[in-house]
Amino acid sequence: MFDAWSQWTWVTVAWLELVLAYGGYLVYLGWRRRKLLADDRARRVIEREAGGGP
Amino acid sequence: MIDAAARLRRPLWLRVYLGITLLLFLVAATFGLVFSPRDVNQGDLIRIMYAHVSVAWIGFVAVGLTAVFGALYLWRGKRRDDVLAVASAEMGLFFASLTIIGGMTYSRPTLNTFWTWDAKLTLTAIMVALMVGYFIVRGLVEDPVRRGRVSAVVAIVAAASLPFNYLAAEWFRTLHPAKSVALDGSGVTMDPTMLQVLLLNTAVAGMIYLGFMFDRVRLGRIEAELEAERAAGAVGGGAGGKEVVRV
Question: Which domains does chain B have, with CATH numbers?
Fold first, then answer.
């Protein structure tokens, strides 16, 4: 299968790996952020750190 | 009332920074894919080298900095150093894994194999395994201080493999090519245009590392604060203590 791949196919795959990995990490960071937001106690910590909470 | 969602959103400067980094990534990729000359032996496959080597170098830096932050935590005991170490460890694991995957993609068409257990590749695989171990250790230890200390030691062990990894292709007979750029200034056996494109891609990978670090540290600080609050039972009417958020 891979023997039939052209040089440019390999080049494209290699660069797509980078794009997918960087995009994937940003999605992961968004997931961590949403997880914090979904936590009431985390929200209170954030608001208190900002001087807006008890 | 301060809105927690607004506080958690990326600040404007970070969004601008990441936007500039994305633009520079596109520029660097264009240089690698379009303007770089073809290699006399590898042909167009040389364009994979810009993606693979830049990521590998930044992975080394990330693992090294994880050990530095870990050592600082061992020395000073400041939680901030542990948060930085965790963020950098995540980046180290991320870039090192990407190095292995990119290396396999580069190796198959040039060396006719995805993988071989030679010194360089094995050392890189061990480094990735140690970075996975770093997070396993953090998941197993409940006490935050002990967790920070034990994982710092794992990070230092992982970083200790870096010099051997760097020199492995010189010291041993490996399938991995010898380095074309010597850090000690003893020589560059690479076309000057290719070197410039490689350095540009490495600089962009470094900017991506920093951008991700900034974002991850912001979240890590809040998570660490939350964990401290839970441990003290000061948040949520003192019901906390059992639940622990790992950072």
Answer: 14-228 (1.20.120)
User: What Cα–Cα distance (Å) separates residue A9 from each residue in A13, B50, B102?
Assistant: 6, 16, 13
pLDDT digits (tens, 9 = 90+) for B13-69: 999 999 999 999 999 999 999 999 999 989 999 999 999 999 999 999 999 999 999
Sequence ranges of the domains in chain A? 22-54
Give contacts of A47 with chain B, Cβ < 8 Å: 1-4, 7
Q: Which residues of A touch B106 (CB under 8 A)?
A: 10, 14
Could you report the predicted ipTM of this complex, rounded to two decimals?
0.86
Q: Is B204 exposed, middle or buried (0-12, 13-18, 19+ CB in 10 A)?
A: buried
State the residue for tokens 């364009």. Answer: B47
Chain A: residue whose CA lies nearest to B227: A42
